[in-house]
Design brief:
Helix 2 packs across helix 15 and helix 4 packs across helix 5. This protein starts with a helix and ends with a helix. The strands form three sheets. It has a five-stranded mixed sheet with strand order 7-6-8-5-9. Strands 3-10-4 form a three-stranded antiparallel sheet, sandwiched between helices. A two-stranded parallel ribbon has the order 1-2. It has two domains: about 160 residues, Periplasmic binding protein-like II (D-Maltodextrin-Binding Protein, domain 2), CATH 3.40.190; about 90 residues, D-Maltodextrin-Binding Protein, domain 2, CATH 3.40.190.120. The chain contains 15 helices and ten strands. The radius of gyration is 23 Å and the shape is globular. The chain is of the alpha/beta class and about 300 residues long.
Length: about 300
């Protein structure tokens, strides 16, 4: 009887260890850069995986240095999945010359990441968090300004504000002004943390921004269309290790549920909830997926 009990105990322990090992192996690590938009996207990725699979997700959120530290961690297997931007991949990681066509840029990223790094770009989410020019919505409607070209025609009536760096960069104000014929009646240097307050108080009429900034909603601004594609595209998409995708092929279809899912305005709205209303990124992500019928 004692021998029987011992054998049974050994079998139970062995089975427990086997189950534990199996559970531990079926895991992915999802990372994000240290800003609200990335937190939200990483939470969306996590919720989709946890809802549709039995894969355990470990999160590494807000990694300092962003791509400069996440990319090497992807290469050595410490991270499996994270949201990236096409412009960042092309210009910062691959260190290639600017490609203005957003579709071509994405396809080139996709091809070269797989060839060089064994990393896979999945489908784009739909929004483009690129450099932008923005102005109050009511003023844009009054002056019938929708594009940068439109802005150039009335720029002599308006005041422009940007941080010092934007005026000094080779790809900043001067080159942009030459292409679009900007001749603002006044140009002001603004601290990066006070640009929105400056446009809110009408100290300036136009500012440079990022197209999915949450404060665009707070200050009721219109993001103008870069109709000559001066700024590179920064379209977001999931990047995943090929080894991870080979191990869990179901992740491709699950994560591609994000294809075309998020518009610029929707991303602005979610960023606003986190940045201004201090809502939890996980709850913002959950509400969004419920609204889209994915949870």
């Amino acid at each position: 009887m004692k021998k029987f009990i011992i054998v049974v105990l050994i079998m139970v322990v062995a089975a427990s260890l086997l189950i534990g090992c199996t559970q531990e192996e079926k895991k992915v690590v999802v990372a994000s850069k240290p800003h609200s938009e990335q937190y939200i996207l990483a939470e969306i990725i996590t919720l989709l995986i946890e809802t549709n699979t039995d894969i355990v997700v470990e999160q590494k959120m807000g990694i300092g240095g962003g791509t400069s530290n996440i990319h090497p961690a992807m290469m050595n297997g410490e991270i499996d999945i994270y949201p990236e931007y096409s412009g960042t991949g092309w210009l910062f990681v691959l260190k290639q010359d600017l490609v203005n066509d957003s579709d071509e840029l994405y396809e080139l990223n996709k091809e070269m990441y797989e060839e060089q790094f064994n990393l896979i770009w999945l489908d784009r989410y739909g929004f483009n968090n690129t450099y932008a020019l923005a102005m109050p919505m009511n003023l844009a409607e009054e002056l019938d300004v929708k594009t940068y070209t439109d802005l150039g025609k009335v720029s002599n009536q308006l005041k422009f504000g940007a941080e010092y760096d934007f005026y000094e960069r080779d790809d900043g104000y001067n080159a942009l002004a030459e292409i679009y014929g900007f001749k603002f009646k006044e140009k002001k240097e603004l601290d990066i943390g006070f640009k929105y307050q400056a446009i809110g108080s009408k100290d300036v009429d136009v500012i440079n921004a990022f197209s999915t900034d949450g404060l665009i909603q707070e200050y009721e601004l219109k993001v103008l269309i870069d109709d000559k594609n001066y700024f590179p595209a920064y379209q977001a998409a999931t990047v995943i290790r090929k080894e991870t995708l080979d191990l869990y092929p179901e992740l491709e279809n699950i994560l591609n549920l994000m294809a075309g899912l998020i518009s610029d305005d929707e991303m602005v709205g979610m960023n606003y909830k986190v940045e201004k209303l201090n809502e939890d990124p996980k709850e913002v992500a959950r509400e969004f997926l419920i609204m889209k019928g994915l949870l």
